[in-house]
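thread: overnight batch results

M.L. [08:02]
morning all. the overnight job finished for the chain we discussed friday. pasting input first so we're all looking at the same thing
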Amino acid sequence: MSFDDLPKMPPLLLPGAPEYAARILALSKEVAAKHRTVMDVAYGPDYWQKVDFYLPDDRKAKGVPVLVFIHGGAWRNGFKEWMGFQAPVIIDLPAIFVSVSYRLAPDAKFPAILEDCVDALKLVYDKVGAMGGDRNRIFIGGHSAGGHLSAAVALRRDLSLARDMPVNVVKGCFPVSGIYDLRLEAVTPGSVMERIHNQVFHDPLKAPGMSPICHVKGNTTPFYVSWGGKDLPESIVQSEAFVRALKKERGRVDSYVFPGLGHFEANMDLDRRESPWVETVRAWMTTIATGAKKKTLTRKAKRRVIAARSRRTKTATRTQARRTVKRAKRGR
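M.L. [08:03]
and the structure it wrote out:
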């Protein structure tokens, strides 16, 4: 993947989306040209399973916090190259900004889409120390579909534990304009989610497992949930409900509404140094405590960990078998 050789995507679904996508891609390309980066680091064999690291300009910076950010696009569109425009206000903290790409619907469906994001987090956890980052100070965020995915990664602790990461590997979560309930009964009639639900799920009955609002019980991860004052109606309703659900648990919860901004404008405000969102995220990244917590889970969560590890083993076995067959065919 590169800025000049990105594959063609299906049409974006929302008014103004093509112009928004072109704008943030151009801004991100400018940022990548001006700052230190490590691009296209693979966390899996698929074309889409890669991340970009944006590093502090100070090469001597060590032990800095890390923000992993996930792009939107209704789980069927988008690139990690969209999000680099936000990097400057993070890397001058100093900190490391990581933009994630993942397999997209309809070729990939849940849970694979979410598991890609957890695998990307695992790569960051394992590799960021060599780039000057502190793996005990990893934060995660995302916009739109990426907001949903970032919240799910933070709350589905079983998926992190299945990859040998601490239960509190995510020190804070910053979802923007997200969707947090993918169950059919929660989907707004006529919404984008209703149109694409069958594209992202093989089985709609699995939607609760992919819905962050269904996994808030016992949460201790700090959340800063935000959305635009003129955001998509579904994002507004679900963000407000998600905040209410999180506030019933022990974890810190703050929220912010971008005054007068729509779905795309809210995301584009994330590169503005004086933005209240940027100020809050920078403050959290420098003040929230670090350290790995002992791996303790409920019996139900432990069963999910075992199931996740089993799925990963089976997937790895099938992948190896396909590679063996391909090598045998080439050798004929």
